[in-house]
């Protein structure tokens, strides 16, 4: 095996591990029944309306819509490498399904409020670690993050500001459809999609990464091939 192929395998292995961990965070946030992260709100809500279609399937459908939006915004400047978001969408979608199945097999959704808070905070930690590994490996590109970057580039607004607005838009859209489908803004009455946990994940994941990023750099940084 030559060095170039080995480097690619290492990068994608680390990046895939990141996707697996982020997917576990999605499953755990649903299990908390206190609200999930903004990017996972629409797929989860649509799964509640059409349970025969999995959360993972709705996730990759949403990601394909994001990629189409990028193409419309960038047009001739849309880079061929951005198409790597397509396999990433399928991989991440089905990883989410696997994580949800795993947590469903363990126990029913949490009902005790203290446990719900603990699970939400655990999701923050897991998600922060997963995102860092995804970025550190530099392999897969998730469409949600790339769409935020494209919107930032097109509008000339800072990425951090666009990220907040993008997440708010996803939550607002989910709340609208929840009201249309179930007459509630939070979910279907049994499974909670939007609540305190959504705010916890939106606010504290970035804060948590300030502490987890250096640790991931120390543990996995030496494994990542140099450019």
Provide structural commentary:
It is a single chain. With 227 residues, the protein is mainly α. The chain has one domain (11-223). The protein contains eight helices and no strands. The chain has helices at 3-32, 41-49, 55-74, 85-106, 113-137, 143-155, 159-182, 196-220. Helix 1 packs antiparallel against helix 5 (113-137), helix 2 (41-49) packs across helix 3 (55-74) and helix 2 packs parallel to helix 7 (159-182). The two termini are 18 Å apart.
Q: What layout of secondary structure does this protein have?
A:
Elements: H1 3-32, H2 41-49, H3 55-74, H4 85-106, H5 113-137, H6 143-155, H7 159-182, H8 196-220
SSE order in H/E notation? Answer: HHHHHHHH
Radius of gyration: 18 Å
Calculate the terminal CA-CA distance, rounded to whole Å: 18 Å
Based on the structure, what is the oligomeric state of the protein chains? Answer: single chain
Weakly predicted, low-confidence segments: none
What does the overall shape look like? globular
Total of domains: 1
Residues in helix, %: over 70%
Largest sheet: none
DSSP helix count?
8
* Structural classification: mainly alpha
Mean pLDDT: 90
Strand content: under 5%
Number of strands: 0
Can you give keywords for this protein?
8 helices, mainly alpha, globular, 227 residues, 0% strand
Care to give the gist of this entry?
The chain has one domain (11-223). It is 74% helix and 0% strand.
């Amino acid at each position: 095996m030559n060095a170039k192929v080995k480097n690619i395998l290492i990068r994608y292995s680390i990046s895939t591990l990141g996707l697996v961990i982020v997917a576990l965070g999605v499953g755990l946030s649903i299990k908390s029944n206190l609200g999930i992260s903004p990017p996972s709100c629409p797929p989860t809500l649509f799964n509640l309306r059409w349970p025969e279609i999995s959360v993972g399937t709705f996730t990759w459908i949403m990601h394909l819509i994001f990629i189409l939006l990028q193409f419309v915004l960038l047009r001739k400047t849309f880079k061929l490498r951005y198409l790597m978001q397509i396999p990433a969408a399928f991989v991440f979608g089905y990883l989410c399904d696997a994580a949800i199945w795993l947590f469903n097999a363990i126990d029913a959704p949490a009902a005790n409020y203290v446990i719900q808070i603990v699970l939400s905070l655990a999701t923050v930690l897991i998600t922060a670690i997963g995102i860092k590994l995804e970025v550190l490996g530099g392999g897969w590109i998730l469409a949600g993050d790339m769409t935020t970057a494209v919107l930032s580039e097109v509008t000339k607004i800072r990425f951090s500001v666009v990220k907040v607005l993008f997440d708010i838009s996803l939550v607002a859209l989910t709340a609208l459809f929840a009201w249309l489908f179930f007459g509630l803004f939070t979910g279907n009455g049994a499974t909670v999609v939007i609540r305190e946990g959504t705010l916890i994940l939106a606010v504290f994941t970035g804060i948590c990464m300030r502490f987890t990023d250096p640790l991931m750099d120390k543990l996995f940084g030496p494994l990542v091939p140099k450019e």
